[in-house]
Amino acid sequence: VEGVHFLEGTDPARVAQKLLRVNLSDLAAMGAEPRGYWIGVQIQKEGAKAWLESFVLGLKADQEEFRISLMGGDTVATPGPIALSITAIGMVPKGSALLRSGAKPGDRLYVSGTIGDGALGLKVARGGLPGLSEAARDFLIDRLECPSPRLAIGQSLRGVASAAIDISDGLVADAGHMANASGVGLQIDAGQVPLSAAAQDALGKGSATIADLIAGGDDFELLFALPEGTDLPGGAETELTQIGFVEVGQGVAVTFEGRPVSLPKRGYTHL
Amino acid sequence: VEGVHFLEGTDPARVAQKLLRVNLSDLAAMGAEPRGYWIGVQIQKEGAKAWLESFVLGLKADQEEFRISLMGGDTVATPGPIALSITAIGMVPKGSALLRSGAKPGDRLYVSGTIGDGALGLKVARGGLPGLSEAARDFLIDRLECPSPRLAIGQSLRGVASAAIDISDGLVADAGHMANASGVGLQIDAGQVPLSAAAQDALGKGSATIADLIAGGDDFELLFALPEGTDLPGGAETELTQIGFVEVGQGVAVTFEGRPVSLPKRGYTHL
Fold it and tell me: Which of B12, B120, B172, B240 allows an S-S link to B54, with CB 3.0 to 4.6 Å?
């Protein structure tokens, strides 16, 4: 929804890419290979043609990048903001889908890539973080607008990870979803959470806190649990970093340098 | 979209039923057996809980009626009107899906049920047609808010009909879609188009014209082409009525009592 999930004035091609990629990220988190998608578009008649022409260029680019096809959809007029939805389907070998519900006490907790860039990208898009270099600002905007669904990692985790989820609402919030679904507690060491150079810079300059980064949304990295004694799959397209453990209990406990971190914001709440 | 596809203040359970049924109607038109659906909901936070509680009751009733399951979805906040989308999937034996594109000159053209009730139901919902009986008005509202997807008819037409489409934008507009996809012309005799008692009453009282009925949308009946010498399938849950022919040419020609009917409105245009 324009103004809720993406800022007004965002390049429509980038909106298309993010829309598709956040859905592919959900498939990645289940270890699935994407097959196709359906799209629903609501837009005001005024200006629709130009907006949609740019929008479909973004879809086209990512259809090629991810080798998926548009299977159908619907476009309707609305008096409200532009609103877009995608239903994407993917395939896994029978019984091998990664779920949120399999984490067991003793498992190690990993994330892919770096955390917090999406939240910082939103600050930049809103005119914040003026102290960062232009390159850092561009990097963060790019992470916000064009996330990388971790499809190859997800597929390599089939039969390996005990649970997985993609980080869309924020690391801590999505860890909470895994903890609830698995009936376990998760222990996260914020000091181990991998950060990009841009995020480290923002942290060092005091324009963001570690809590902002681990509570902010829009990372679209994978969080997964790996049973003790299981090797990480090789050949991942990005770093995989251990950030904590699964334990008996419930909820998510975050520490930083040995002390509990209090998190005022528990991730994005939709309603 | 509230205010575009359904009137503000419509019972949310009925909105749910229509949303699901118009999608099942699309599956019916392809001869498919419904399997499941995904739903996307956009709603303002204010009042969302009560609205959604009623909405899911409608979904539940129709899930049971049509023996389908909710497979997933997403609910998000919007500052705009309530907007809903469903992606429904169904199955057909390989190669047997009914398409819009197979109509051949010489085929006969049929519709299921009665035509124009949805358009009249919209007039009633907006306070029109005061001269009709309460029973007729209720019937028309019901046809508008709770269409009957012709799933059994669609399935019985597999391997029988040469082309099929469901009538959502209006008989003439959807006939136009079939004509275009098939590369043929369609000849419709408006005098043969089946009308409900309520629609005949509205026509008789001069509160609607035959053009209103065949150009109005929201019928969710099937339009299909049957090759010459092919028998209609038996056991249909509603009448099947021949309304015309497929011919060499293009577009849709409508006659009434032997004269061409001019249609100022060519069906619902989305954008």
Answer: B12
